[in-house]
Amino acid sequence: AREHGLEMRFIEYMPIGALSHVHVEDDTTGSRRLAECAVRAVSSVRVDPGPQSPVEVRYPIVFSSERRQR
């Protein structure tokens, strides 16, 4: 199966657990709209409780063109 993905990067702040500076670092999907949608979705995430100090995180999101049998 062919896989494509986005590598997201953001900094998580405490005490509210909000994510900031969310952006796509690497995009192998070729879809700017998908990347923009992912940034909006990840930007709305809240983490409770937040860390004691800012934490930089990289998170891969992988999309596969293979259909799974049910």
Low-confidence stretches: none
Element string (H = helix, E = strand): EEHE
Distance between the termini: 17 Å
Biggest sheet: strands, sense, closure? Answer: 3 strands, antiparallel
Walk me through the structure.
The chain is 17% helix and 41% strand. With 70 residues, the chain is an alpha+beta fold. The radius of gyration is 14 Å and the shape is elongated. The model has no long low-confidence stretch (mean pLDDT 76).
What brief labels describe this structure?
70 residues, alpha+beta, 3-stranded antiparallel β-sheet, 3 strands
Compose a concise summary of this entry.
The protein is of the alpha+beta class and 70 residues long. The protein is 17% helix and 41% strand. The model has no long low-confidence stretch (mean pLDDT 76).
Fold topology:
Layout: E1 3-12, E2 19-27, H1 32-43, E3 55-64
Antiparallel strand pairs: 1-2, 1-3
